[in-house]
């Protein structure tokens, strides 16, 4: 078991190993005293961390997290649980049928933004969700608007609800 206060070890140690994925799953690691940063949190999970404890956690919380991970559980701040569920859901969200995707020429990332737009997330929130810049989100949305031929964000979502994107509406839980 590793208890770390930085992602550096996970990034550096396993990055050069050809068996990185295997090592990441075998070594139980807990990151403590971490910044409240969703991008860092997702990176930690991708690199195999099983625990993520924020800077403001009490000593008792740190000890409990280490014990939980040692017992085979995963630990994260409570407010990251919803974020993690949302993130996973958008990675597997059913998107418009292949005919519509081909017709509009949307990239995979452009398609992933649609449920988040439907939930009313801001560009900044979408950027944090995917760990990309806000400007990149703006660029994606601008291209979606142009490809789909609509004037505003809400119209993007409405087009997908009305023209083959009913699965997005159901998944995103959009309420008018």
The end-to-end distance, rounded to whole angstroms, is 48 Å
Task: Count the E strands.
Answer: 3
Discrete helix count = 11
Q: Secondary-structure element order, as H and E?
A: EHHEHEHHHHHHHH
| Integer tally of domains | 2
The helix-and-strand class reads: mainly alpha
Strand order of the largest sheet: 1-2-3
CATH class category of the largest domain: Mainly Alpha
CATH topology of the largest domain: Arc Repressor Mutant, subunit A
Instruction: Give the radius of gyration.
Output: 19 Å
Flag low-confidence runs. 14-24, 165-176
| Biggest sheet statistics | 3 strands, parallel
Amount of beta strand = 5-15%
The residue fraction in helices comes out at 55-70%
Mean pLDDT: 78
Write the layout of secondary structure elements.
Elements: E1 2-4, H1 8-15, H2 20-26, E2 29-34, H3 38-46, E3 51-54, H4 59-70, H5 78-91, H6 98-104, H7 108-118, H8 123-130, H9 134-148, H10 153-162, H11 166-172
Parallel strand pairs: 1-2, 2-3
Helix pairs in contact: 7-10, 7-11, 8-9, 10-11
What does this structure look like?
Mean pLDDT is 78; it is low at 14-24 and 165-176. The protein is elongated. It has helices at 8-15, 20-26, 38-46, 59-70, 78-91, 98-104, 108-118, 123-130, 134-148, 153-162, 166-172, and strands at 2-4, 29-34, 51-54. It has 176 residues and is mainly alpha-helical. It folds into two domains: 2-77, no CATH class; 93-172, Arc Repressor Mutant, subunit A (Orthogonal Bundle). A three-stranded parallel beta sheet has the order 1-2-3, sandwiched between helices. It starts with a strand and ends with a helix.
């Amino acid at each position: 078991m590793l208890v770390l206060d930085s992602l550096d070890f996970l990034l550096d140690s396993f990055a050069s190993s050809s068996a990185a994925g295997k090592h990441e799953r075998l070594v139980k690691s807990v990151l403590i005293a971490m910044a409240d940063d969703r991008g860092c949190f997702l990176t930690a999970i991708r690199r195999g961390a099983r625990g993520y404890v924020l800077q403001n956690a009490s000593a008792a919380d740190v000890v409990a997290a280490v014990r939980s991970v040692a017992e085979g559980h995963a630990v994260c701040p409570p407010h990251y649980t919803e974020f993690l569920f949302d993130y996973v859901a958008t990675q597997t969200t059913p998107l418009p049928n292949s005919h519509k995707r081909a017709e509009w020429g949307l990239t995979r990332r452009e398609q992933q933004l649609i449920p988040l737009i439907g939930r009313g997330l801001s560009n900044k929130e979408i950027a944090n969700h995917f760990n990309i810049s806000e400007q990149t989100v703006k660029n994606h949305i601008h291209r979606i608007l142009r490809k789909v031929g609509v004037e505003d964000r809400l119209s993007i979502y409405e087009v997908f609800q009305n023209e083959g994107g009913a699965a997005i509406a159901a998944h995103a839980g959009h309420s008018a």
